[in-house]
Each structure stands twice: as structure tokens, then as C-alpha cells.
Amino acid sequence: MAEIKKVATFYRVSTKAQLEGNDIPMQRRACQEFVDKQGWTLVKEYTEKGVSGYKTSVEDRDEIQRAKYDAENGLYDVLLYFMFDRLGRKIYETSLLLKWFSTKGIEVWSVKEGEQQFQTEGDDAANFLRFWQSNHESKKTSIRIDEKHVQMAQDGLYRGGTAPFGYCLVKSGVINKKGKELMKLAINEDQAVIVRQMFAFVKEEGYGSNRIAKYLL
Question: With 50 as the cut, is the pLDDT of residue 143 above it?
Fold first, then answer.
């Protein structure tokens, strides 16, 4: 009878929105169903919450270090992800990390992509290309988000927090994807008198910040 493989699963989300959503439970359910289908046994779960696989080095990720320690001590035979980009998005670092697990006798699997092989140079090239694509997608996502924030500012929509002094928040009539109405900035006329006076002090009198602050006390 074949020995039942011991499996460790790894879940990661990189943003607060994913953390507050249903992303980790989705990854966990998919991985657990995959383990059951293969006839393996789950012995360990690693979870990274709000950790960027693109910005954060492997050396600074505690759960990765725990997974490496446990691998060296024979806790599990298989490391399973929902998708390999949950391990990380750094091209060279992540591909080398996958290979490190392989050198320790750990099989590395993804629910969506199957087992990652390291037998030939072709395997290494395919692995590199996977993380190159993942890294590229991460950069494109960042660009899209930055552009969206710029457009929101241009449209007068406020991205969150308390309105700066001199302004107040009013309803914009724009509904976001979560069904919540966005706010926009409007001038608070009572506070605007003070703001305009501060600008006048700088422009016409040459006041510095300390002198303006003393005047306003």
C-alpha cells in the first residue's frame, strides 16, 4: 500500500480588500478539496495576511521561513498552493524558492497548475516564465490602480479619511462596486476664510509656518 503523503498548504493575500473579502477561505477550500481528491492528509496550514509577494522579500516573510524550517524537519511531503503566485511574484527569488523546496525532497503543487517540475532546463525556463508573467501582471495592476486614483482626484472624488481643513465631504452621486456612494470634496466656507488668510500671509507678508501658527492661536 502506497504511503499517504503529508501536505502543507499555503495561503496568501496581499491587500486589505482581499483580507476583508473571501479570498483566503476560497484558497483554503480549493486546497482542501484538492487534498481530499488526491487521497493525501493535511498536516499544516500557513497563512500570510496582507503581505505583498512583489514588494516583500522572502527573508522578511515569517510564514515562508516557518514553511522552510518545517520542510527541513520533515513535517510534510507536499507544499500546496491555490496558484503559484501565492508563493510570491519576484521573478528570480520566487523561482529559486520553489526549487529550494524541491531540493529538500518536497513536491510543490498548485491546485490550478499541477505539480511544478525541476527535472530539466525546460522546467526551469517554464518556471521562470511563469513568475515573469506574474511579476508583469502585478506591475500592470499597480499602474491601473495609480491611474484610477489620479482620475478620482481629477473628478473631485475623495478616496477616504477625514476631509482636509478648508473642505467638507458631500455625496457625489457615484456608486462604487460595493454599492456604496462615494464622497467628494467641497469648500467649507467658514474654514476657507482662515485658509485664504494663511495663503495671504505667505504671499504678501512672507510669513513662515511658525509665525502663522502663532497668529492663529
Answer: no
Beta bridge mates, 157: 184
Report how far residue 54's alpha carbon sits from residue 47's, in angstroms, rounded to the nearest whole number.
17
* C-alpha grid cell, residue 151: 482620475
Give the span between the Cα atoms of 211 and 213, in whole angstroms: 5
Q: Can you tell me the distance from the alpha carbon of 37 to that of 127, in angstroms, rounded to the nearest whole number?
A: 25
The third-level CATH classification (topology) of the domain covering 6-143 is Rossmann fold (3.40.50)
Q: Are 187 and 177 in contact (CB under 8 A)?
A: no
Q: What is the pLDDT of residues 106-129, one digit of tens each?
A: 999 988 888 887 665 665 566 656
Residue 91 contacts residue 129 (beta carbons within 8 Å) = no
Alpha-carbon distances of 51 from 18, 33, 87, 111, 163, rounded to whole Å: 11, 25, 11, 21, 29
The helix or strand, by DSSP H or E, that contains position 45, with its residue range, turns out to be: strand 41-49
Note whether 116 and 110 are within 8 A (CB).
yes
65 and 100 in contact (C-beta within 8 Å)?
A: no
Whole-angstrom distance, CA of residue 213 vs CA of residue 217: 6
Question: What number of other Cβ atoms are within 10 A of residue 34's Cβ?
Answer: 18
What's the whole-model pTM score?
A: 0.55
* Residue ranges per structural domain of the chain: 6-143, 167-216
How far apart (Å, rounded) are the C-alpha atoms in residues 88 and 93? 8
- Encode pLDDT of 39-54 as tens digits: 999 999 999 887 665 5
Which secondary structure element, helix H or strand E, spans residue 187, and what is its range? strand 181-187
